[in-house]
Amino acid sequence: MRRTPALVSSVAVTAVLSAALVGCAASPDDVRGCTPALPAGETAALVTATGEVGSVPDVRIPAPLVAGDSERATLTAGSGLVAQQGMTVDYDAVLLDAATGQPLQQTSFDGSAHLTRAGGEGALAASFVCAQAGERIAVTTTIGESGLAAGGASEVDLARSLVIVVDITGVYLGQADGVNQWPTDGLPVVVTAVDGTVGITVPSGLDLPTESRSVTIKRGSGAMTALGDTIVVQRGNWGWSQDGTIAQKSSTWSSGYPLTLTLTDDGEQAVPDDLLTALVGVPVGSQVLLALPPTTGADATPGGAEANVVVVDVLGIRSSAESTK
Fold first, then answer.
1. How far apart are the first and last CA of the chain?
2. How far apart are CA 164 and CA 107, in angstroms?
3. Domain 10-172 has CATH 3.10.50.40
4. DSSP label at 41?
5. Residue 259, Cα to own-chain centre: how many angstroms?
6. pLDDT tens per residue across all 325 residues of the chain
7. Fold agreement (10-172, 179-319)
């Protein structure tokens, strides 16, 4: 397959930066009340694609096709949860030169997760609004308007017309939406921004934990996780020193992209025991905090070990242990 890495960013294809989009639904599964951020149009409707959703489509374009304003067309309808602002979308996509119909780039189409937030600048990001799992969408745009342009692309390149065919393979929550639970003494406090970004604070004088402790901060109302499930999460990790200093070590909220965890204690995908225990038997929509005592032994930090704090938003179940048997 021909590639044009100087024109289209391959990183952007599989990860679209989050930002606000418009659109809402009357109920989580009712697409009729949702207004797409990218309008339907006659140009996008000229694109056809055959093959099962989730497999590499056979795309036909009446080339040369010239994109005006960015448009979308639903080629195959989906069902289930509607992707609203800030929600999580799992997708595959193929990009084609609208002038020739030749493919430029594509994601793997092998069942791997390509998770992003339903939000961000550009036509690809806008196409996620109101999408449902099982949906196939055609987008006509330009490289410059797509949100995928690589740095250094010329004005001529940015004006080139582009066709994107998107398969929506899953839609999940954007943040924990459960009911707040009573605070637990002796643990850091979770603070959540309007966009769902999570941080922690430590009350003055709080001692580091001497044993592992987990607590549900928000209890969701969705399906219950089980051992062997692959779940979609947002996760953050902080170091906590005795003087109350908090240092963020990693955060999917900072990177902008949720991830998957397989709830197993076996093999390369094994989840640490304490985290596994905290996440099994939790309803989707929950937020869980895990506090781990300072490392002891050979890995201890001389002169002042720190505790480890993990916060996880459980956004959905990508595949269940039962469905893979």
1. 35
2. 11
3. yes
4. -
5. 7
6. 334 444 455 545 544 433 333 444 357 888 888 888 999 999 999 999 999 999 999 999 998 999 999 999 999 999 999 999 889 999 999 999 999 999 999 999 999 999 998 877 899 999 999 999 999 999 999 999 999 988 888 999 999 999 999 999 999 999 999 999 998 889 999 999 988 899 999 998 899 999 999 999 999 999 999 999 999 999 999 999 988 899 999 999 998 889 999 999 999 989 999 999 999 999 999 999 999 999 744 344 444 589 999 999 999 999 998 765 5
7. yes
Phi, psi of 12 (to 5 degrees): -70, -30
Q: Give residue-wise pLDDT tens across range 61-75.
A: 998 999 999 999 999
Beta bridge partners of 105: 95
User: Could you tell me the fold of the domain covering 179-319?
Assistant: Chitinase A; domain 3 (3.10.50)
Tokens representing 156 are 């001529």
Domain boundaries, the chain: 10-172, 179-319
How many residues are given for the chain?
A: 325
- 3 state SS of 297: helix
Record the tokens describing residue 305, joined without a space: 């070990």
Look at residues 315, 170, 311, 177 and name the one whose alpha carbon lies nearest to residue 233: 315
Residue 22 has a pLDDT of 40
Peptide bond into 39 cis (omega under 30): no
Say which residue the tokens 């480890």 belong to.
308
**CA–CA distances in Å: residue 187 to residues 182, 184, 214, 250, 253:** 12, 6, 9, 19, 21
Q: Cβ distance 260 to 231 under 8 Å?
A: yes
